[in-house]
Write a structure and sequence with these properties.
single chain, 577 residues, mainly alpha, 21 helices, disordered N terminus, disordered C terminus
Length: 577
């Protein structure tokens, strides 16, 4: 807890208070999947290329027996277990990952949803149909044995089937699921969406938060809070008000988690403001990236390692794991200080959630509660304008609690208040378009880069990610500005052509794309190889195809094909070469 006390003292010195009053106890005490000597020995021996492999492996015996057998091995080897002995031990006590789930084809999947008819380009329409078919490959259902013997699995039991991102990510993930749900609703699959929503609501009831993903080792951290928005999208499609009424208290409980455990009070120009940041008050390496975290920490003095690990976990909670956005003073992961920053997007998401909860209560006839959330949103808007908005640069920026300055680096998240509808200045849209132009973002033909910094991390240049495209495109497209709407369309066109061209080449959708190449390629960098699938990339592509289906074209789409017959007479006459 020394790292927490140090952060608290720092906050008091700098004029802000950390919202620690509601901090939860460590929610995972597994001596196999979350902490302990067995975990350390296996991960540091690097039996697998990806540390996530081991912590996803189910047990063949009760955990007490596994730990007893391991302690015997430790004793008999004099504390020096060989790599071969570890391999043998793991093969006898663990099963391969993924066996606790089965592939599931959603019951509400059907061929040819209506939105496909609105896509004019025949090649894009055929591709959209392929994306629609991918839901059947990404559907998973957890076997009942996980519920019956939960201590033998790192997988958290969820009663309803769900869509996974793909690749190494074989369980559900929190913020990924919002864009997945968007795609599912376009695919006319509200039953699947309701089941996924119910899983998340169950997590809040049981744990007090939605974990980063569906594993016990993710329970120490959440991810960007989009639960209220998921409910709003589901309601817009189904008008299932009884489901809202049944779960309104759980939606409030999740927002309360963020206010109790992730808030920070800031004094600025004689005013006091409350905003939120990502913060995970638990040390130790991340189990799924154990060896990498341990080796990175070895570059620091021993008394600084726990603080590094808490910051890495906070960076993972942000969803941006990792980015120069969280580094202070350099472009190196060693200098990650996620909890020192008040992020634009997190506060935009919470501002939006406060507005949605107000609207939900109006629907349910509870005007007093509606007013409470309206007032909370008003306070947050004022805080964001005072601390995050920059009139000169024409956008919002993350606020550094340590030096009390904004981080003026470019990140698509800077525009997230437009996406969330959380701003008051009617001219903010025009200013943000100019901000994009000033940073030459519109010159990138394959997508909006995650940043303009080259750090080797996956949430930096040259990688572009689907949700960040949506944050910018939707924010501009939903505005009343014709100029902003034109920019939004061009950005969507660029992204669709990049996704489509690479799909034609590799028959795969990726979690991230490299915008620095001439043709657009899968992204790279970070802690693991680029993954295929891919849930939220599919969802955003379907969203853009639905929004602009009558205008989008592939690189050699039907617009060229449909007019080519006009050129035939000229070709015969020799007037065209």
């Amino acid at each position: 807890m020394q790292g927490i006390n140090g952060l608290l003292q720092l906050g008091l010195l700098l004029g802000f208070e950390l919202g620690l009053q509601g901090a939860l106890p460590p929610p995972c005490d597994s001596q196999i999947y979350c902490t302990g000597e067995l975990l350390r020995q296996v991960q540091m021996a690097k039996l697998y290329q990806d540390d996530k492999h081991f912590v996803d492996m189910p047990l063949t015996k009760a955990p007490d027996q596994v730990l007893s057998d391991f302690n015997e091995l430790l004793k008999s080897s004099g504390g020096n277990i060989s790599r071969e002995q570890l391999k043998t031990f793991v093969s006898e006590h663990f099963k391969d990952p993924g066996q606790e789930m089965e592939t599931w084809i959603p019951e509400d999947w059907k061929a040819s949803p209506k939105f496909l008819e609105t896509i004019s380009d025949t090649r894009l329409r055929a591709w959209a149909e392929d994306l629609h078919n991918l839901w059947k490959k990404l559907g998973r259902k957890i076997k009942l044995e996980v519920s019956e013997q939960p201590d033998r699995y790192s997988l958290i039991y969820a009663a309803h089937p769900f869509i996974v991102p793909g690749g190494r990510f074989i369980e559900f993930y929190y913020w990924d699921s919002y864009w997945v749900m968007q795609g599912l609703l376009l695919s006319e699959m509200p039953g699947t969406v309701k089941g996924m929503l119910q899983n998340f609501l169950d997590m809040v009831k049981h744990y007090g938060l939605i974990p980063n993903g569906g594993r016990v080792y993710y329970l120490q951290r959440s991810q960007p809070p989009l639960l209220a928005l998921m409910m709003d999208r589901y309601l817009a499609y189904t008008n299932d008000v009884p489901f809202l009424r049944e779960n309104i208290g759980t939606l409030e409980l999740e927002l309360e988690f963020w206010m109790q455990n992730r808030s920070v009070n800031i004094s600025h120009n004689g005013e006091n403001y409350t905003l939120n940041r990502y913060y995970v008050p638990y040390g130790g390496p991340r189990p799924e990236s154990y060896s990498k975290d341990e080796e990175l920490a070895e570059l620091l003095p021993e008394d600084a390692r726990e603080s590094l690990w808490t910051e890495l976990k906070a960076g993972a909670e942000s969803g941006w794991d990792f980015s120069s956005r969280w580094f202070v003073g350099s472009n190196y992961l060693l200098d990650i200080k996620t909890s020192h920053l008040v992020p634009v997007d997190l506060n935009a998401f919470l501002c939006q959630a406060e507005n949605l909860l107000a609207n939900f209560h109006i629907q349910l006839g509870n005007l007093n509660m509606a007013q409470r959330y309206q007032e909370a949103q008003t306070r947050r808007k004022a805080a964001m304008e005072a601390l995050l908005w920059n009139e000169t640069l024409g956008s919002w920026f993350d606020f550094n609690l340590k030096n009390r300055q904004q981080n003026h680096g470019f990140y698509p998240s800077n525009l997230s208040p437009l996406w969330a509808g959380c701003f008051s200045d009617p001219d903010a849209v025009r200013k943000n378009v100019k901000y994009l132009e000033d940073n030459k973002i519109l010159t990138y033909k394959h997508g909006i880069p995650s940043s303009l910094q080259i750090s080797g991390q996956q949430w930096d240049f040259p990688n572009a990610w689907a949700p960040l495209q949506d944050l910018v495109v939707r924010g501009l497209a939903d505005s009343g500005s014709a100029e902003a709407q034109d920019v939004a369309f061009q950005l969507a066109q660029n992204w669709i052509q990049t996704n489509f061209a690479l799909y034609q080449k590799n028959k795969a959708m990726y979690e991230k794309y490299d915008v620095s190449t001439d043709s657009g390629e899968p992204g790279g960098g970070g802690e693991y190889e680029v993954q295929e699938g891919f849930g939220w990339t599919n969802g955003v592509a379907l969203e853009f195809l639905n929004r602009y289906g009558d205008r989008l074209t592939s690189r050699s789409g039907p617009m060229l094909l449909s007019t080519s017959w006009l050129l035939l007479p000229l070709l015969f006459l020799g007037l065209l070469s």
